[in-house]
Amino acid sequence: MSLCGLPPDVIFESARNAVQFWVNQKDVEIKYHKHSYKELSNRVDQMQNNMNEQLSQANLITSQLNKKLQTSEHECENLKKDLSELQEKYSEKAREKAKLQELYTSLKKKYDQSYRDNVNARITSPKSVFEPKDTRPPPSATLFAKDRSMNRQQNNVFNQQMFHLGINEDSSPIKSPSFLNNSLNSSNNVLFGPPSLSNTVNKVKPRQLIPPQLPPRLMYTPVLKRPMSPRMMMNKSPR
C-alpha cells in the first residue's frame, strides 16, 4: 500500500532490496546451522572416543576379574580336596584314639583288679609270704671271733694315739674306730671279710677341738627416765 502511486523503477528497486535481504538472512541461517553441525559432530566424536576408552578399560577389568575368578575357583577346588583328605585322616586318627582308649581302659581295669587282688591277698595271707627271704648263708663263728680281735687291736692303737695327742676318751668328741666300723663289719664282713688294721689306722685322724663360741656381749642401753615434777619430789621426800 505504501508503494502505490510510485514509479515502477522505485518499486522494482525496493523489491530487489527485499529479496537480497531475504537471501542474506538465509545465508546467515545456513552458516549458523553448519557451524552448529560441526560443533555437534566434534562433540559426538569426543564422546565416541571417550566411550571407546571406557569400554576398553571395562573389558580389561572384566578380563582380570574373570582370571581371578578362575584362579579362586581352582583354589577352592584344591581346598575342598585338602579338606576331604583332612577329614579322612581325622576320622582315622579318631578311630585309632578310640581303640587306644579302649585298650587303656581295659589295661587299667586289669591293673586295678590285680592290685586289689594283691591287696586282698596281703590282708588275708600271713606276713612271711611277702617278706623277702634271706638266701645268704649264715656267717660262721670264726669270722665273728676274728672281727672282735681286730676291733680290740684297733681300739688299743686308737687309744694310744689319743693318749699321745693329749685327748681323753671321755671328753673327746671323736669316737673309736670300732664304733665307726661296726656298721660296716656287720654287713660287709660276711662277703668281704674284716678290714685290715693298717688301712683303718691310717684313715682315722683325730679331729681338732673347736672352742665353743661365746654369745655376743649385750649392749647396755640406758633407759631415759621421765623428769620428776615438784609435786613428785615432795611426795618422795622423807616425812
Q: What's a quick, concise take on this entry?
A:
The protein is mainly alpha-helical and 239 residues long. The protein contains five helices and no strands.
Gross morphology is elongated
Strand content: under 5%
Quaternary organisation:
single chain
Portion of residues within helices: over 70%
Briefly note the structural class of the backbone: mainly alpha
Please state the average pLDDT score.
Answer: 73
Order of helices and strands: HHHHH
- Tell me the major beta sheet: none
Q: Radius of gyration in whole Å, from Cα?
A: 66 Å
Number of H- or I-type helical stretches? 5
Q: Show unreliable segments.
A: 169-204, 217-221
Q: Kindly, what is the distance between the CA atoms of the first and last residues, rounded to a whole number of angstroms?
A: 171 Å
Beta-strand segment tally:
0
GO molecular function, one term: ubiquitin protein ligase activity
GO biological process, one term: reciprocal meiotic recombination
Organism: Acrasis kona
InterPro entries: CCNB1IP1 (IPR042448)
Architecture overview:
The protein is built from five helices and no strands. It is mainly α. It has a domain at 141-203. The protein is elongated. Residues 169-204 and 217-221 have low confidence and may be disordered. This is E3 ubiquitin-protein ligase.
